[in-house]
Amino acid sequence: MSTFRLINALKRQPVDRTPVWFMRQAGRYLPEYRALREKMGGFLAMCKTPEVACEITLQPLARFAVDAAIIFSDILTIPDAMGLGLHFATNEGPQFDNPVRDKKAVDRLPIPDPENDLGYVMEAIRLVSRHNQQVPVIGFCGSPWTVATYMVEGKSSRDFSVIKKMLYNEPAILLALLGKLMQASCLYLQAQIQAGAKAVMIFDTWGGVLTGPAYQQFSLHFMQEIVTFLKKSAPEIPVILFTKQGGQWLENIAQTGCDAIGIDWTQNIKDARKRVGHQVALQGNLDPSILLASPATIKAEVKTILADFGVGCGHVFNCGHGITPDVPPENVQAAIEAVQEGYIV
Ligand code: CP3
Hints:
This protein is an alpha/beta fold. The chain has helices spanning 5-10, 31-40, 43-47, 50-63, 77-81, 103-108, 114-117, 119-131, 144-153, 161-169, 171-195, 212-233, 250-254, 269-276, 295-309, 329-341, and strands at residues 69-70, 86-89, 93-96, 137-142, 199-204, 239-243, 260-262, 281-286, 315-319. It has one domain: TIM Barrel (Alpha-Beta Barrel), CATH 3.20.20. Helices cover 49% and strands 12% of the residues. A 7-stranded parallel sheet has the order 1-4-5-6-7-8-9. The protein has a two-stranded antiparallel ribbon with strand order 2-3. Helix 12 links the parallel strand 5 and strand 6 (239-243). It is globular, with a radius of gyration of 19 Å. The mean pLDDT is 97. The structure holds coproporphyrinogen III.
């Protein structure tokens, strides 16, 4: 048994109450985050300054009784370290100077050495681990497929036409890129664990835009390889896989050997538990838009999810995707209180 509620729930061991944390719990909905961002002059500069990344990671802990601290960073640190030239233009999302479009570009990509090339992330994790012993630090990376969408498209996309064209016309090039990202992600998560991360999560935000067979071959397969690697190198560390819109593939995701599956709100958690609850813990699944409603509505919706999951082990409360910038912090507090109360009151 761990002393941490989150870790016990991820391992489907008994807990005194359902643990709760939020994707994007450190971010733009917090005025103290926005103030620091103004001072630092940009998101990437904050990620790359360990003292600042540590401070932002801890900001939600100063306000709320959340059960985890997700390290303040981004899934695009790996392609940045590979030399793609990453920028975050204000309100425009990420952009790469050198998108990856052909075999030559894939062949040229180095596999970053975590401590040398991404040392700022490990240093931030070490600082957070030193400054807080209350809750575990969650390390993370993007899924190879999700990170590749940004590298190939060069920016956020609506229809993923460039990478899908590559997938169907030149699959070998895409598979080579995904293989490199998989290798880099294994080393990156291993280093985060060595630096103090007590659980890790793989964000597959865009796996759900693929067909079933393409999801298996181009997304899940590479996440499976990462899980297998981590289960050998750090077997005690829980691994959470989150494929947004991946509800139809829960059985396949559970078979990777991951400890927990993140589910979005399009899936009923009761059904999800029936399908895979004997194999994995479930993390989710409030629609983050509900955090824009009144505290009374938020509490009712939280309690519905807790009741749908029902009694027993293996639930971590979260939203089904990140907190959006327009959410009032007091509404996050209302959701946390509802989780703390539980559904039988
Ligand atoms: O959850 C946390 O609080 C930890 C930090 C975290 C960030 N990004 C900080 C961030 C995590 C876990 C991520 C993951 C991430 N990054 C994903 C996967 C999860 C998801 O949200 O779907 C993706 C797809 C990215 C890539 C990314 N980073 C995009 C598309 C954008 C711009 C759009 C947006 O949502 O802001 C970012 C920027 C980003 N990452 C911000 C933060 C706090 C906003 C930066 C700012 O403007 O201050």
